[in-house]
Write a structure and sequence with these properties.
- There is one protein chain.
- By secondary structure, this protein is α/β, with parallel strands linked by helices.
- It has 2 domains: 2-142, Rossmann fold (3-Layer(aba) Sandwich); 145-309, L-2-Hydroxyisocaproate Dehydrogenase, Chain A, domain 2, CATH 3.90.110.
- It has helices at 10-22, 37-46, 49-52, 92-109, 122-133, 145-160, 199-210, 212-220, 226-240, 285-302; strands at 2-6, 27-32, 57-62, 73-76, 114-117, 140-142, 167-168, 171-172, 180-181, 187-188, 191-192, 245-254, 260-271, 274-278.
- The strands form 4 sheets. Strands 3-2-1-4-5-6 form a 6-stranded parallel sheet, sandwiched between helices. A 3-stranded antiparallel sheet has the order 7-10-11, covered by helices on one side.
- The chain is globular and about 50 Å long.
């Protein structure tokens, strides 16, 4: 399968590199508007091919969307990155126009592609992409839940002093301050973490997870990229290999989790055609209340789309 990544910045380049190293795509096209930028990144990555035994071809292009033609999956990372002190919501005006233009250009050449939206704020931009493109909601998926869940697992593993691979954890809701880490659904080798950690410890882990992106932005001076890029690559892998993996992803809700006409991260089954099924967890009253507050916050940001939805 051919996969295209739009935006050759830190997140996009990381996604392209991970996809190539994992070897599930025949070609990765990396596109950017900055002259020579994607070409340079692609050349640098291809010069590791011998070192890693990499067979995937990485092609860098400047602004020529025809080179993305017939892509099975398209990852959109284009837009401004968050800086210290900025919220994701402050990016909505500029990034909405960028993502809308990118979607139009990609669809012209790959009308059957499945799209992964990474650009911030991902929930609102996924909503925009679905409404504006007219594509089935199953083919436009936002990246946040998988990233937030991975951060949740990291903080749980730090508290437990164990390998992150031995932990299962899920985060739902809107990417940002209103996400909902689900401690009740987290397990360490089958043992509920609620039996291993105190309420105070779990609350700190939840808050560290919620602040995870902001913490890294303060430390790095810009948005994180390794985990976000790898998260997008993992979603692309599940789609390309038709693996039917259950992953927390941003999707358009039409009654699931008691919410309608809003995008938020929930567990879904990913396969070749995108989202095959939304998995509805049995939330308790407190969890449902937190999720509803999360989607309410997303609706407020959606209102800022204005003319972009016309």
């Amino acid at each position: 399968m051919k996969i295209s990544v739009i935006g050759a910045g830190n997140v996009g380049a990381t996604a392209a590199n991970v996809i190539a190293l994992k070897g599930f795509a025949s070609e990765v096209v990396l596109l950017d508007i900055k002259e020579g930028f994607a070409e340079g990144k692609a050349m640098d990555m291809m010069q590791t091919a011998k070192l890693f035994g990499m067979d995937t071809k990485i092609t860098g292009v400047t602004g020529d969307y025809s080179r993305t033609a017939d892509s099975g999956v398209i990852i959109i990372t284009s837009g401004l990155a968050r800086r210290p002190g900025m919220t994701r919501e402050q990016l909505v005006g500029t990034n909405a126009k960028i993502v809308k233009g990118v979607m139009d250009s990609c669809l012209e050449h790959s009308p059957e592609a499945v799209f992964i939206i990474v650009s911030n704020p991902a929930d609102t931009l996924t909503y925009l992409a679905i409404k504006d493109s007219g594509l089935p909601k199953e083919r436009i998926i936002g990246m946040s839940g998988i990233l937030d869940s991975s951060r949740f697992v990291y903080f749980l593993s730090q508290a437990l002093g164990c390998n992150p691979n031995d932990i299962d954890g899920t985060v739902i809701g809107v990417h940002g301050d209103h996400m909902v880490p689900l401690a009740r659904f987290a397990y360490y080798k089958g043992v509920p973490v609620t039996e291993l950690l105190s309420g105070a410890q779990l609350e700190k882990i939840a808050q560290d997870t919620i602040a995870g992106g902001g913490t890294l932005t303060k430390l790095l001076g810009t948005s994180a990229w390794y985990a976000p890029g790898a998260s997008a690559a993992a979603m692309a892998e599940a789609i390309a290999l038709d693996s039917h993996r259950m992953i927390s992803c941003i999707t358009y809700l039409q009654g699931e989790y008691k919410e309608k006409d809003v995008c938020a991260a929930v567990p879904v089954i990913l396969g070749r055609k995108g989202i095959e099924k939304v998995v509805e967890l049995s939330l308790n009253e407190e969890e449902q209340k937190a999720f509803s507050a999360s989607t309410a916050a997303s609706r407020q940001v959606n209102e800022k789309l204005g003319d972009c939805l016309k």
